[in-house]
Amino acid sequence: MAMRGETPDRIPYVPRFDLWYNSNSYRGTLPMRHQGRTHDEIARAEGWALHKVIPELLEVADPRENLTRGIGLYSLKENGYRINFSPNIKLEVQKSRQGGEESTRVEYHTPKGVVSTKEVINEEMRQAGVSITWVQEHAIKRPQDYEIWATVFENITVTPDYDRYRAWQQRIGDDGVAVLMATFSASPIHHIQRDFLDATEFFFHYSDHQREMRRLAEAIGLVYEQILKVVADSPAEVVLWGANYDDMITYPPYFRKEMTPWLRKASEYLASKGKLLICHCDGENQGLIDVIADSGMHVAEAVCCAPMTKQPIDLYYERWCRSNKLTLMGGLVQSLLSPATASLDDLNSYLDHFFKAVAPGKRLIMSVADTTPPNADFDRLVLVGERIEKEGRLPLQAGAARPLGQEQLKAAARRVAPEVADDKTFKAVHEDVLSGNHAGIKVRVQELLTQGVNATDILNKGMLTAMEVISGRFRDGRVFIPEVLMSARAMNEALAALEPHLAKEKKGASGKVLIGTVRGDLHDIGKNMVATMLRGVGFKVIDLGINLRVEDFVGSVEKHRPDILGMSALLTTTMPEMKKVIDLLVVRGLRNQVKVIVGGAPVNEKFARDIGADGYGADAGSSVDLARHLMQKKG
């Protein structure tokens, strides 16, 4: 009813806790009253609706159901269809196990060549409760691969598999909505972004290899057309079409150009068949709030709001629900469920505000955004359910809630860099960095060097001033990840030409930073962005990589003697690793020699303070500000 815009008797409560369940059942730490129960049995015992939007991708009866996960295709019971390859495409599968790590490499042999993917799962991931493998070897490794992959997709047919879906739907019954998963990507280009390339590498290819990328997108589009027809004729009431939206990664102009046309096409066609389209909008949606409203989707699921992201629940409800544009499913911020990142008073204060801010409560489903973390206090989920039972009767009465203003959600005053270079000598180089002209900047830098211009001045007055501008625009939401990456690439090209001259002039960096993602965590795009922007404004950055042991961090501090150590975590189960690093720094007598900053989606200021870090960076821009501030204090 809520999904369709009707008004049920109270706010539906559909907590997603699959990762929490996977992790705690694997470790044997389920609450005593739920020992031996399945995920669904726990939800039913608590009186909650079953969350059936995102499939458990590792729970398959046949390994072939998720064999092609590396290219974003599945044949799960939740799909309602099967992916079939023609005889022209031969798949060769190589599985291996080393210690607690399992890997699967799939080679696709085609008339035009061989391409491959490789995915892994390890013990840390199992402990964290992950429901999907990590792609270690992406599908696109060189521009020539686009044509081969296009051949693969041109040799795919999609056939209905309604019986398995219908049986799953019947098992759920009236306790939830069995969302059929059509595709995790909103469009063919988004499919390439999500599944075929590293998160940062995609933007370079999107700039440099448009022709090849469009060729593959056309072939993927042929499969999408088949999927759309099959799922539209399925027994499903609601169809998932697209996931993982974020205003920096799927930034507004890109979303409008590459994703909205397919979303509108799919939603209109599904609506004509009496079905709803749902999207998994689990990232920072501040810059996408109007784009999503105009995209055609009927339900925005896993919507995460302040205090974990920038926009308060008030604004989402006002722009989407009160205006009757779509239904919001989410709003229960996962950081409020963990004692590591929020107190019980924090959760209750949020709920006090929530019930007033979302009046009258139409087009709203209370659910966790994105999912309950493994270290969450399960009783907090119970508390939310109890409060909804008492206070969630519809229509809600508007109280004295005051929507949180943007100024409350932004950091204090930030230094604004000049938008143009002061000296005309360096204006061209400055503009090259701003525009990401990596080819032209090498020529202009060499011309300046030939004219006898000081290399340090070229760096400081031409290049660093431009990166200051990019950094400021990024913080303000005026540019997005692609622009930052293109500018950083131009900066690096110019530095290669300047490096010999800078060495002679003994140019020192703003400071030295070690950065990495903690053990058990394989995410890196946030870390990469911080490293890129720190380099761009003059810091020397040593990127240690991902899945780093405590000893890896501390040993690197001993070896490199950095000014700052930065640690990132996206999984709540890996957050304790940060404190272990700080504790070992103390034991080794190194803590007073290095400033420690932490960041990542589940991390917040409270957590940073509790573990003894020197600061918390909410995003790449604020991390740069923090690093500078710490360097000033250190100096």
Q: What is the CA-CA span between the terminal residues?
A: 60 Å
Radius of gyration: 25 Å
Q: Looking across the biggest beta sheet, what order are the strands in? A: 7-8-9-10-11-12
- Strand element count: 17
In short:
With 635 residues, this protein is an alpha/beta fold.
Molecular structure report:
- The model is unreliable at 400-421 (pLDDT under 50).
- The chain is built from 23 helices and 17 strands.
- The N and C termini lie far apart (60 Å).
- The chain has a six-stranded parallel beta sheet with strand order 7-8-9-10-11-12. A five-stranded parallel beta sheet has the order 14-13-15-16-17, with helices on both faces. A four-stranded antiparallel beta sheet has the order 2-3-4-5.
- 44% of the residues lie in helices and 16% in strands.
- With 635 residues, it is an alpha/beta fold.
- The protein is globular and about 75 Å long.
Which helices and strands appear, and what pairs or packs with what?
Blueprint (H helix, E strand, L loop, with lengths): L17 H10 L11 H8 L34 E5 L4 E9 L2 E10 L2 E9 L1 H6 L5 E4 L7 H10 L1 E5 L1 H11 L7 E4 L4 H8 L5 H8 L1 H23 L5 E6 L8 H21 L3 E5 L8 H5 L5 E5 L9 H10 L4 E7 L10 H14 L6 E6 L8 H14 L14 H4 L17 H9 L2 H13 L4 H22 L4 H25 L6 E7 L6 H12 L3 E9 L1 H11 L3 E5 L7 H12 L7 E5 L5 H7 L3 E3 L2 H15 L1
Parallel strand pairs: 7-8, 8-9, 9-10, 10-11, 11-12, 13-14, 13-15, 15-16, 16-17
Antiparallel strand pairs: 1-6, 2-3, 3-4, 4-5
